[in-house]
Predict the structure.
Amino acid sequence: MKHPPYHLRSNKAVERVAFVEGIRLLAGLGKLSNYTYFGFGGPYLEDFRLLYELCPEIKMVSIEEDPETYKRQKFHQPAGTVELWPGTFSSFLAQYVLNDEKSIFWLDYTGLEYGNFEDFMVLLGKVAANSMVKVTLRAEPKDFIDDPHEFRRKFEILMPDSSAVPPATSEDLANLIQGMVQIASQRALPSALPHVFQPVSSFYYSDGTGMFTLTGVVCRRSDQAHVRSVFKDLKFASLNWARPKKIDVPVLSTKERLHLQRLLPCSSAAGELLRKELGYLIDTNRSQTERKLQQYADFHRYFPYFMKATP
Amino acid sequence: MSKGRPTHYDPVDASPVKSFFVHMLTRDIRLEEAILDLLDNCVDGILRSHTPHNASEPYAGFKAEIEFKKDLFSISDNCGGIPWNLHDYAFRMGRPAKRPPDAPGTVGIYGIGMKRAIFKMGRRCLISTQNEGRAYDVEITPEWTADEDQWEIPVKPAKESLPEDGTTLVIGELLPGIAECFGADAKAFKADLERLIATHYVYIIQKGFKVTINGDLVPPRPTRLVFNKKVRGSKKEGIQPFIFKTKTGGVDVFLAVGFTRPIPSEDEIAREQEEKKYSSLDAGWTIICNDRAVLYCDRTELTGWGEAGVPRYHTQFIAISGIVEFKADDAYKLPTTTTKRGIDASSALYLQIKNKMREGMRIFTDYTNKWKGRADESRKQVEASGAPLTFAEIKAESARLPFMSTKRSVPEGDQYKPRLPMPKKLEPRQRRISFLKDIEDVRTVAEYLFEDAEKDPSAVGEKCFDLILREAGK
C-alpha cells in the first residue's frame, strides 16, 4: 500500500504535538500509567514514536487492517511496549475487551464516511470514564462539488440541517462536520446516560487535503466541570463546541525560525511584530504574511524541524 | 348464604385518575411524536377555521413556530385558535361524545394529543388562544395536576390580544429528562425533530404550511419516484411507478410504488453490507393519512415486505419506494393508531390496500432481480427517464395514464401497471466472468487504467479483458 509522507506533513505534525500536550493533561484525571493508547499509526507509527518519547508510561496498541502496512509497522515499532493488532477497527471494537481501563483513542481516518461516525458512536459507549477520544476526518469541499446531494444521502441523519448543501469553504465544512460529531456524541451518550463527551480541542488544517480533527474526553456528567477545569489551560482549548481553529503554519527556514523564536512568546499582534522583525514578506501580501506569522507564533512550540540528513 | 357475607354491595369507584393521564399515557409516545401531535392541532385549526382558496397550497400563510430551551418549550401558531364553542371540549382528557363534529380532513379524534404532549414535557402550561376576536388563557399548574378531585381549570380573559387568530402554548417546569433533551442534547434533538417534521409533514409543508424550530425554517423532504413521462398510454417500455387508486367507505386512496434511483450495482450492495455508507435511505413505504405521514420508509412486514411472494427487504432493493395516501373527511375511517404515527395493521381497509402494495412492489423486486449484475444498463434506463417526480407531481401526471378498472378483485379500483424494460436473455455466445482479486491489486490496476483507485471493480475487470482481447487479436 502506498502512503503519503505523513511524517513530513507540517500542519498534521503541529496538530499531533498539540494532541500529545492534551494527553499529558490527562494526568489531572489520574495516573497516565493507567492509560492505554490506541491508534491507526500508519506505516511509520509516528504518533506512537512521539508518545513513547513524551509519555513512556502509557501502554500502546496500534490497529492496522492492511497486512503489508502491518508488516511495515513491525519494522518501525518504536518500543517494545507497542502492541500491534491486525484487523479493521470495526472488528477491533467487536473483539477487543477494554477491561474497564482508561484509554486514549485516535480514530485517524483519511476519508469521510458514515461508518466512521458509527465507529465513533460505538466507541463512546464502550470506553471507561475519563478516556480520551480523538477523531480525524477528511474535510475537503471539492469532494462534493460534482454531487452535493451525495453528502445528504450519506450523512442526513447526522446533519444539523438536513437540507443544507455541503459548504464550499474548508472552514465551514469543518464546522459542519464538527456539528455532526457533536450530534453523534449526543446520540451515543444521551443525557439519560451517566457519561458525556466533553470536547477539549478542535482544529482544521490542510497539507494538500483538508482535514478536521476533534479531541474530547468521555467522563461522568457529574465530573464534567472538573474535566473542563483540567483542560482549560490547554493552548487553544475548545470546551464549548466553538468553531474549529485553523492550523496553517508557514514554511520557514531553520535560520528564520531561530531568529523569530527569540521574540516569542509575545502577548499581542505577534504577526505584525514578526513581519517587522523579518523585514520582508513571506506570502502574497502584508496581511497574509502577518496571518502566517501569527500561526507560527501560535504553534511554534509544536512546529517540527525537517532536516536533510545523510545516513 | 354463609355468615359474615355482606348483603349490600356498594358500587365501585371507576372514575379516572389523573396520574394515568400524567404518568402512564405519556409513556406511549416519543417526545418528538408528542410535538407532532401539537403540530397536528395547528393544522386541524386551519381546516376548522378557514376555507381554502388555493387548492394546491391550502395551508399558505399559516405557520407554527416551535421554540425550546433547557427550561421552556413553546409552540405558537396563527391557525385560527380554539373557538369558544369548543373550549369545554378541547381541554377535556379524552373526547366527549357530544363534542360537535370536526371539520373535514382533521385528524384529531381521541382528544388526548395536546394534554399528553403537555404532560410528556412539563408540569406547568399556559395556553393562550384567540378565535374570532375572543381571546382567553387556560393555565395548567402542578397543583391542579396533583389534586385528584379538581377537574375544572379556570379560564381567564387573555392579557393581550394577538395580531392574528391562533394559539400559543408555553410549557414550563420541564421534567428533568426533557430539560436535558432541550439542553445537553439540544443539537441532536433539533436535528431529529427537524428531520421528523421534514418527512412526516412533507405534504403539508409543500402545500404552504411553514414550521420553524428555534427560528430555522423546516424544509420539506419529499420522496421522488422515477417517472418516464414519454411513455404514456402506449405499450412502450419505460421506468414508471405502479399506481392504484380507489374510493371506498368514505376514504380516498392513492398508491404509487416505484424506483427512487437506479438499482445498486453488486459492488454497492457488497460495500453497503460491509460498511454502512448511507445514514438513511428513501427505500420502503410511506403512508399518509389526511396529509400527515403516519409511517415513513417502512421496510418490514407491516408494509408487505417478506410476505406473500414479496422478498424480505435487502440492500439490493435500496431503490424501491412507495407512498400510499389515505384521505377521509372523517378521521375515524383512517387506519391509524391512537398516536397517529402508526398503522392499524388489522384495519380491513389497510389489509385490502396492502394487497395492492405487495402487487406493486413485486413488479419492482422482480425487475431488480432480473437486472441483477447488469446495473449499468439499468442505470441508463433510469437516467433516460428524466428527473424523478414528487407524489403531488405523480398524481397530476397520472391523469394522463390509461388506468384499468379492477372490479372483480378486492379492493375495487383503478390501476396502472407500467411495462418495465426487461433484459433480453443472454445470447448463447456470451458468457459472464466473475472473479475475486486482492483489494490492493484491484486498486493498483484501477489507478493504472483509470487514474482512479476507487473505480468500480467490475469496470476494472472489463477493461482488462478488453485490452487483452485487443492484444490477442493482433
Q: What stands out?
A: Residues 170-188 of chain A form the longest helix (19 residues).
